[in-house]
Amino acid sequence: MRVKFWGVRGSIPSGNKETAGIGGNTTCVEVRCGDDLFILDTGTGIRNLGMSLMDQLPIQAKILYSHVHWDHIQGLPFFGPLYLEGNEFDIYGGTSLPITIEEILHRQMSPPVFPVPMKTLPSTLRFHDQKSGDVIETDHCRISLISMYHPNGSYGYRFDSEGKSMVFATDVEHMTEDVVDPRLKKFCSDADVLIYDCQYTEDEYHGRNGHFPRIGWGHSTMNHGVKLAQAANVKQLILFHHDPAHCDETVKGIESEARELFPKSTAAYEGLEIDFQQSIYPKSCFE
Ligand SMILES: [Zn+2]
Ligand SMILES: [Zn+2]
Predict the structure, then answer these.
(1) Is the bond leading into 112 cis (omega within 30 degrees of zero)?
(2) Which terminus has fewer CB within 10 Å in the chain: N or C?
């Protein structure tokens, strides 16, 4: 299994020189298991992934959505391989509302908000509505789903492949300060890598920094990510879904603090790659 990060930001892209180290694109992660290609979310990071795939055509990929808030879908209309015949995509997702993943993505790619209607795309798209507890199995890996606490709902995904495991749990808020969600703890149990929503600092979350508290906004903190990683006996924690207001220096500070609590912590950045067959301790962006 190999993982590459193309977008690590939450809420909205934040491209400026102060965020250039970590990167300003919203959520998109590429996962390879054998010859399977998975794409976790289609935030603005998918545009660069699409360009990298252009010399590997035709593509067959599974796109797995954590949920459909804008920062997780808004790059899809700019994913080049969609516009080429011969490419095939199986698209998995869902929400807590009675609407299909196909309908939501179709609305995003419809005039007048986008000029090219999704139904005119020459690539092949197949849609699969998901629910908690579903399992996707291929020759190379097993992927399980968990529903998580987030406005309108979100899904976490766990990949198990050739004795290695990774959990992608973004857009999730902890429900209590001190107690780790027992469902999530079990889901993450003994994972080699946990990618977790660490959007806010404790001061931001509680409103000691900024104009208002962020409680109930659907995101967690590095400190709670560490608690979950420790409780679930995770080997490596990746701090993910960085706040658009967090410049590289802020993320560097959060990563340093995380490493004091849980030494194998790394803040996600665009271009970060993890090869599970080799080292599973990725380098910091700041080393
Ligand atoms: Zn998000
Ligand atoms: Zn969200």
Answers:
(1) yes
(2) C
